[in-house]
Amino acid sequence: MIIKWTPDLSVGIEEIDNEHKKWVSLLNDFYQGLMNGKSKEKLTELVLGMLDYTKYHFANEERYMKSINYPDFELHKEKHNEYVAKITEFHEKIVNDKMILSLTVTNFLKTWLINHIKGTDQQYARFANTID
Ligand SMILES: [Fe+2]
Ligand SMILES: [Fe+2]
Predict the structure, then answer these.
(1) In terms of C-beta density within 10 A (0-12 exposed, 13-18 middle, 19 or more buried), how is residue 79 classed?
(2) pTM more than 0.90
(3) Residue 83 Cα, ligand 1 centroid: separation in angstroms?
(4) Which ligand is nearest to the CA of 79?
(5) pLDDT in the model for residue 43
(6) Which of 2, 22, 63, 67 could bridge 31 with an S-S bond, Cβ 3.0-4.6 Å?
(7) How far does Cα 65 stand from its chain's mean position?
(8) Fold that domain 7-131 belongs to in CATH
(9) Taking the CA atoms of the chain, what radius of gyration do you get in angstroms?
């Protein structure tokens, strides 16, 4: 396990926390696959699965932010878009053998996830008063 969901990652909204937990578990699956020496095909499949899930999660989160008239909505959405673009680029590079899935990639994904939840997601949670 490379990452664990801990209460300090909570946004105080059960549905969103559950989606973050799922995201964490998909990242762990990918890490596990990497550690177990799974094939490039299998690993890219895991990356795509994670990308699909984050798109689903981002859409839900954006809907929520709109529903509370969150003032920094656009900025937050931009960060989601940047992530999707980055992972899509990773995927393309891997498929074309221009990049190898490694711990560097895994650490990037992990750091992004944690920084995003703590630095960006928790901002709307504070705005909505669902966390302190
Ligand atoms: Fe977000
Ligand atoms: Fe999120």
Answers:
(1) middle
(2) yes
(3) 10
(4) 1
(5) 94
(6) 2
(7) 17
(8) Four Helix Bundle (Hemerythrin (Met), subunit A) (1.20.120)
(9) 15
